[in-house]
């Protein structure tokens, strides 16, 4: 057993100095655990319920208006005086709602699939490969998000006009084949969080670059892939501007759901010779929201997981 000898004449440190020299433990961040008293919990529930009602009021008004007759649609009552469930039967005879729904679902699926796959491929290239000017090129891709849509609207329209695709579905989803800057950034951040040892081992086993992407990167990035898919599906579903530009020359049966709702508002407007049957527009608007609710219900787990696991590595 070794015995340490103290130098003669050396003074022992005081207790206060010894305490000051001891390493300070890291400070723990305090987490907000909510109110602890019964009154505080009740107030929290009241505020949460009030905020929830504020956001749910437009949807509740839409549901109530869809069951009202023509003259009571805009009376702001959440409980209709006259209850007409037959509106949900008559709307299919009044409007080509089934065609609008089919067109919107098909276009949204094509757009979401195209942008999710293409953005994932580009993002994997930026995350895995090392080449001169990679950061500069990635910065240029991100910089395209600063361009307003109005700047590129006319050039893109002229391109589709020269290709003869006006009046078809292709302009509504064809641009997604080239990826999206925001989705490329989102997927790249996720790919950077994957262990590099997986790809190195795959290369040693003779896997190709496409095999590494398809067999390793894609299965591990399902949450972020679904996030991109849901985001783009919703954006394409609600895209009235593109449908108005590229499909306005077609028949009403060729419209998407947002363009069809705008057409219905014009059709039933008294200023355009309509009878003011806006109850059918309310029913159609409510039916159009159903696919979004279904998408969020089935993708909620992946939605939360994708947001939580998309890292901040760079």
Description:
It is a single chain. With 314 residues, the protein is an all-alpha fold. The chain has 2 domains: 42-85, no CATH class; 95-309, Orthogonal Bundle (MetI-like fold). It contains 14 helices and no strands. The protein has helices at 15-21, 38-66, 87-94, 97-128, 134-143, 149-163, 170-173, 181-192, 196-204, 209-220, 222-237, 240-246, 257-267, 278-309. α2 packs across α14 (278-309), α4 (97-128) packs across α8 (181-192) and α4 crosses α11. Mean pLDDT is 84; it is low at 1-7.
Report the span from N to C terminus.
51 Å
The largest pleated sheet is described as: none
CATH level-4 homologous superfamily of the largest domain: MetI-like
User: What is the CATH class name of the largest domain?
Assistant: Mainly Alpha
**Global geometry:** globular
- Helicity, in percent? 55-70%
């Amino acid at each position: 057993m070794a015995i340490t000898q103290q130098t003669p004449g050396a003074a022992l440190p005081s207790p206060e100095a010894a305490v000051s020299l001891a390493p300070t433990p890291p400070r723990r961040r305090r987490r907000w655990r909510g109110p602890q008293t019964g009154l505080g919990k009740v107030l929290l529930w009241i505020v949460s319920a009030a905020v929830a009602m504020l956001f749910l009021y437009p949807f509740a008004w839409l549901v109530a208006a869809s069951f009202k007759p023509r003259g009571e649609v805009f009376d702001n009552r959440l409980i209709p005086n006259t209850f007409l469930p037959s509106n949900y039967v008559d709307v299919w005879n009044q409007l080509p709602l089934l065609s609008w729904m089919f067109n919107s679902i098909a276009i949204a699926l094509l757009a979401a699939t195209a942008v999710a796959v293409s953005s994932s491929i580009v993002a994997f290239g930026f995350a895995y490969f090392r080449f001169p000017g990679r950061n500069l090129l990635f910065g240029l891709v991100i910089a395209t998000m600063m361009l307003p849509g109005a700047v590129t609207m006319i050039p893109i329209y002229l391109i589709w006009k020269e290709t003869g695709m006006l009046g078809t579905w292709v302009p509504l989803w064809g641009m997604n084949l080239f990826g999206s800057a925001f989705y490329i950034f989102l997927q790249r951040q996720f790919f950077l969080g994957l262990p590099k040892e997986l790809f190195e081992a795959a290369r040693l086993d003779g896997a190709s670059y496409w095999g590494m992407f398809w067999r390793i990167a894609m299965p591990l990035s399902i949450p972020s892939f679904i996030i991109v898919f849901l985001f783009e599906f919703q954006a394409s579903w609600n895209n009235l501007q593109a449908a108005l530009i590229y499909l306005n020359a077609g028949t009403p049966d060729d419209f998407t759901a947002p363009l069809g709702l705008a057409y219905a508002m014009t059709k039933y407007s008294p200023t355009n010779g309509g009878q003011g049957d806006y109850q059918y527009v309310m029913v159609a608007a409510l039916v159009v929201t159903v696919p979004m609710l279904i998408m969020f219900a089935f993708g909620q787990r992946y939605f939360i997981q994708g947001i939580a696991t998309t890292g901040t590595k760079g």
